[in-house]
Design a protein that fits this description.
This protein is α+β, with helices and mostly antiparallel strands. 60% of the residues lie in helices and 12% in strands. Strands 3-4-5-6 form a four-stranded mixed sheet. It has a two-stranded antiparallel sheet with strand order 1-2. It is flat, with a radius of gyration of 23 Å.
């Protein structure tokens, strides 16, 4: 239940920071967090035994190494799931305020004690407050005026176009003065606007200050 509550309280903060809601975090917290205490105890035992003699710390160290390997393996599996996360885009501040007000009312209500003992109550709360953070205007394809965004890439060019029909286009995407703009500029900008994929990329010419970020995006597409 602690893992579930951590997810409930951290979802709006993480979504507002990274413009993405991770659905698998709830399950991962239930798996990873209970092992944290075990890891701390085994790590302390390993440290003490190693100080006495290096050979004594090998057995608990071997167990600790495999627990950490198992956690990493599980995280990689969840990271590769198709529905592991949803790009929600920027979330208005008023939604986050309502989110936490809803939580406050829930935990201060007389029904708190009855619902707290039930997984159904926690899951019901989780699903309902998650709905508040979803960008329903994008899912319903409500008309939006076209947008042209000039991304700050320093010495270079990157222009993001969004059409009323919901299509997104990128014109160039490179820089000479900034490193890794694909990772630190292009991807965050796409997530900010709730864009999960680009319909088309236009390249005016192949100089580095116009394509360096696009090349990074293509490499990531190959490895994903």
């Amino acid at each position: 239940k602690q893992g579930c509550m951590i997810s409930i309280f951290s979802i709006p903060i993480l979504a507002a920071t990274f413009y993405e809601i991770t659905f698998t975090s709830l399950i991962l917290n239930l798996i990873i967090l209970p092992l944290t205490t075990v890891i701390l105890y085994i790590g302390f035992i390993t440290l003490v035994l190693t100080c006495l003699h290096p050979l004594l710390g090998q057995i608990p160290g071997f167990i600790l190494d495999h627990i950490l390997w198992g956690q990493e393996f599980i995280c990689k599996i969840f990271d590769g799931l198709w529905l592991r996360s949803y790009i929600c885009g920027v979330i208005p501040s008023w939604k986050i305020v309502i989110y936490f007000l809803f939580l406050a009312l829930f935990f201060l209500s007389p029904k708190k004690l009855r619902l707290k003992q039930s997984w159904k109550g926690i899951v019901f709360l989780f699903l309902n407050i998650l709905v508040l953070l979803m960008p329903w205007h994008r899912l319903w394809k409500v008309y939006q005026p076209p947008e042209i965004t000039m991304l700050d890439v320093g010495h270079g060019e990157a222009v993001l176009l969004q059409s009323p029909s919901g299509h997104s286009y990128l014109i160039d995407g490179g820089s000479l003065s900034k490193q890794d703009i694909g990772k630190y500029t292009l991807v965050p900008a796409l997530k900010y606007y709730g864009i999960r994929s680009l319909d088309m990329i236009f390249i005016t010419h192949v100089d580095k200050d116009h394509i360096s970020g696009i090349l990074w995006l293509l490499e990531m597409q190959k490895t994903s």
